[in-house]
Amino acid sequence: MTIGSPFDRRRAGLLLHPTSLPGGYGNGDLGSDAYRFVEFLAACGFTVWQTLPLGPTHDDLSPYSAQSVHAGNPRLIALEPLVDAGWLRADGGPGAGEDGWAYRRRRLGEARQGFQGRGGKDFAAFEAFRHQHRHWLDDYALYQAIRAANGQRAWFVWPNEQRDRQPKALTSMRQQCVEAITQCQFEQFLFDRQWMALKRYANERGILMFGDIPLFVGYDSADVWAQRDMFLLDRDGRREVVAGVPPDYFSATGQLWGNPHYAWERMEADGFQWWKERIRTQLTQFDLLRIDHFRGLEAYWEIPASAETAVAGRWQLAPGDALFKALKTEFGALPLVAEDLGIITPEVETLRDAHHLPGMKVLHFAFGGGADNPYLPHNHLDSSVIYTGTHDNNTTLGWFHELDESTRAHVFDYLGGGPKQMPELLVRAAFASVARLAVTPMQDVLALGGEHRMNRPGVADGCWRWRFRWDQVGHEVAGHYRHLLELYGRV
User: How do 48-50 and 288-291 pair as beta strands?
Assistant: First the structure.
């Protein structure tokens, strides 16, 4: 099926990270429930599936501080296809006291043993994958192997010779960790194969895959360890300054993310090769990409590494214009959306508009102010993406229940209707918008309350774990949403 470009017509999409799917062990994965979700999208008339970043996470499970900008999260690898391929024997699931990730990790090790004994075209495909992706896969697999050998500690507290990538130390670890390195490469091969198969399945049904690029990179990541000169670090790899945002809607003291900042002068000097490779990977995996914290490409909030909050930061200019010009020279027109939320200045808008990037509008931010609020539907532009809320927001029902009476009155005065029509009232407003693409989180389709939100910015524990169940999806949902999308010209 020819599915066209993301903004060739009015479209609608659902926001759901694959970890939030039913099925799988410990979290949703790329197995049968992912394909069922694609079929659900198609039945409803949605033509976009938006995810969060797909990279390998740390124990906090945040996809916005991954261990690699190229690698996929092995937690997403489904086990059923490995059984179907004959690389893994079916079993009864996790053993006593074994959590979902420990079980999946053990089974992936067993799958490689089954895979290695078979040879043939699958082994040739594995070897081709390793060769094609060696520019990042070699460092990433070695990083994971050394990290495991050091008790899963971060690279910046490894022994100095490993931390500083001394050649003899790296050669020694490659020899000692052959099994761990090969296992990591095998898992990346599986992730790539499963993700690309799912993407083809979605595209064949007219559904575009919409990804997310975190602006900043996790400090404890293969990217920072392998290319320290691309980041503002001292000679021992310590952060000099860190990323975050000043006080805003989400926090009175701002957000202290802790990511290292880029050495922008060094990146610009070699034509932004690091960014070109990063974008190349993402353009392979997705049809459309959101740049998280887009405003940081015009100016970023630089916070001393010793600071306890983000209040002590300052704005520093970034070479966003030069970066986008280099990317356009390399790739041509870029299917990018600018996450232009937060403190947006005329300079940020100029950068976005100069490169013809759609921005974002979020209806949760629309009410409680005047008629000039840019998030109100009558102020929307067709070259934008409208959301009820994002992964950082409460669910729409949770948001509504937290509103004061004055803001609730504004909502109903503007939209009409009453409390019993939430969250559909806001969903309809998004669909009715002139914005070319409208996206709503799965929680709003299921009319779920605030206890089902995905993330609470600034809260370290308990986030990124939400999952839905198929029994929450009534038989009437697909037909109802197809009617709505037809009504608002989005099918």
Answer: unpaired
Return the minimum-mean-pLDDT range out of 27-41, 106-120, 286-300. 106-120
**Integer-rounded Cα radius of gyration of the chain:** 23
Number of separate domains in the chain:
1
Residue 221 resides in a domain: no
Tell me the residue range of the domain where 263 lies.
231-356
Q: Phi and psi of 458, rounded to 5°?
A: 85, -5
Q: Is the pTM of this model over 0.90?
A: yes
CB atoms within 10 A of CB 248: 15
- What is the pLDDT averaged over residues 95-118? 93
Q: Let me know: does 299 contact 347? Beta carbons within 8 Å.
A: yes
With 0-12 CB in 10 A as exposed, 13-18 as middle and 19+ as buried, what is 132?
Answer: exposed
Report yes or no on 33 lying in a domain.
no
Q: Which residues fall within 8 angstroms of residue 349, CB to CB, at 6 or more apart? A: 340
Please give the angle made by the CA atoms of 158, 163 and 167, to the nearest 5 degrees: 130
Q: Annotated catalytic residue: which of 339, 340, 424, 444?
A: 339
Distance of alpha carbon 361 from its chain centroid, rounded? 18
pLDDT for 247 equals 86
Catalytic pick among 192, 212, 392, 444: 392
363 within 8 A of 386, measured Cβ to Cβ:
yes
- Map 423-455 to HEC letters: CHHHHHHHHHCCCCEEEEEHHHHCCCCHHHCCC
At residue 471, the pLDDT reads 97
Q: Is a pLDDT exceeding 80 seen at residue 248? A: no
Buried b (16+ CB within 10 A) or exposed e, 43-53: ebbbbbbbbbb
Domain presence at residue 240: yes
Q: Can 292 be counted among the known catalytic residues?
A: yes
Place of tokens 């595209």: 203
Strand duo 48-50 + 208-213: pairing: parallel
pLDDT the model gives residue 233: 97
Q: Is residue 249 part of a domain?
A: yes
- Answer yes or no: are the C-beta atoms of 137 and 188 closer than 8 Å: yes
Using alpha carbons only, what angle is made at residue 95 by residues 92 and 100, rounded to the nearest 5 degrees? Answer: 90
Catalytic residue among 292, 298, 340, 444: 292
How sure is the predictor about 460, in pLDDT bands with cuts at 50, 70 and 90?
confident
Residue 159's pLDDT band, with cuts at 50, 70 and 90, is: very high
Using an 8 Å Cβ cutoff, are 358 and 7 in contact?
Answer: yes
Which residue, 261, 420, 244, is CA-closest to 343?
244
Pairing of strands 437-441, 11-15: parallel
Known catalytic residue at 339: yes
- Crossing angle for the helix pair 120-132 and 178-204, to the nearest 10 degrees: 100
